[in-house]
Backbone:
């Protein structure tokens, strides 16, 4: 069984958390007092460029181990102010990294290390889910018995935090699944209608002006309707999150032909939010990239992968202070 060797490091290199396989790789170090990666590897983490999201290192010597070297990836995690929070490190023996993949920053969704992260979460989701379910049931039961409103507010906070944990687990599990689409004849309008039903409460909460321009005739495509709903749910929720109170979101569908001479349905979601910096547009689909205070930044990566599995693609246009447009191209049957 192939176990991922993963560790979470703070910006100074201290090992905050690590998998058993990672610790097994450096048994002597972990049996001693070493708790900083710089005590284990001949590598100065203080020289890492914090502005880059991902880094690949090869042939890094292991301290106190003659002639042994390792390869590893570092993934930078930032908050919404782009301040470095931590590094995710995944370890490989030297000469293995380059033999199993050609590192390419434009295709991070396909790198096995990130799938492994999701698989770790999927593996423990059941163990976490059962206790959470018990805590949630107990919280709801306690809330019913309480008459004091301030005490009920504390219970509500517990319930909300449990929901946040469950959402985090689900995000990682969705990222891990990456199941193949089950293609059936699907009306694209129906997919969007069902998705809007889920997003409508958020739209109403912010009093967003929503404009829909969709054809009346059926728009048949060969697709997995469940996966496509996930695509448009992610994009629409991002749009709602981006706009201010009384903002505007426009959803439209048109038929277009691209340079490959194939016909596509073009689904456009446009918002008048703050927009995205030009430097960030090229990296918004990377796993764990997010500008939100909450969330893992996996939604758009999963979205892009699903669309590509449907022989489609996504283009993003954005301008600061004017808004963002997501163009989703889906192959017409």
Residues:
């Amino acid at each position: 069984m192939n176990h991922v060797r993963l560790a979470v490091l703070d910006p100074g290199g201290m090992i905050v958390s690590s998998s058993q396989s990672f610790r097994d790789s450096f048994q002597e170090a972990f049996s001693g007092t070493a708790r900083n990666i710089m005590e284990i590897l001949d590598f100065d983490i203080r020289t890492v460029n914090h502005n880059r999201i991902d880094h690949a290192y090869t042939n890094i010597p292991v301290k106190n181990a003659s002639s042994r070297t390792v390869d590893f990836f570092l993934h930078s995690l930032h908050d919404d102010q782009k301040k470095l929070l931590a590094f995710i490190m995944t370890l490989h023996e030297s000469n293995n990294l380059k033999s199993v993949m050609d590192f390419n920053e434009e295709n991070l969704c396909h790198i096995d290390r990130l799938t492994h992260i999701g698989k770790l979460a999927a593996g423990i989701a059941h163990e976490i889910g059962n206790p959470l379910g018990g805590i949630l049931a107990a919280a709801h039961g306690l809330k019913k018995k309480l008459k004091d409103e301030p005490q009920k507010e504390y219970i509500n906070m517990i319930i909300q935090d449990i929901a946040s944990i469950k959402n985090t687990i689900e995000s990682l599990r969705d990222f891990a699944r990456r199941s193949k689409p089950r293609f059936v004849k699907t009306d694209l309008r129906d997919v969007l209608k069902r998705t809007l039903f889920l997003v409508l409460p958020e739209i109403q909460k912010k009093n967003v002006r929503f404009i829909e321009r969709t054809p009346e005739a059926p728009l048949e495509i060969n697709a997995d309707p469940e996966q496509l709903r996930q695509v448009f749910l992610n994009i629409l929720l991002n749009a709602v999150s981006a706009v201010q109170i009384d903002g505007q979101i426009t959803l439209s569908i048109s038929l277009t032909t691209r340079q490959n001479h194939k016909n596509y349905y073009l689904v456009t979601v446009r918002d008048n939010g703050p927009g995205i910096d030009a430097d960030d547009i090229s990296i918004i689909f990377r796993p764990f990239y997010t500008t939100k205070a909450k969330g893992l930044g996996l939604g758009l990566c999963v979205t892009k992968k699903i669309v590509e599995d449907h022989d489609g693609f996504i283009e993003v246009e954005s301008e600061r202070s004017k808004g963002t447009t997501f163009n989703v191209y889906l192959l017409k049957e």
Notes: The longest strand covers residues 69-78.
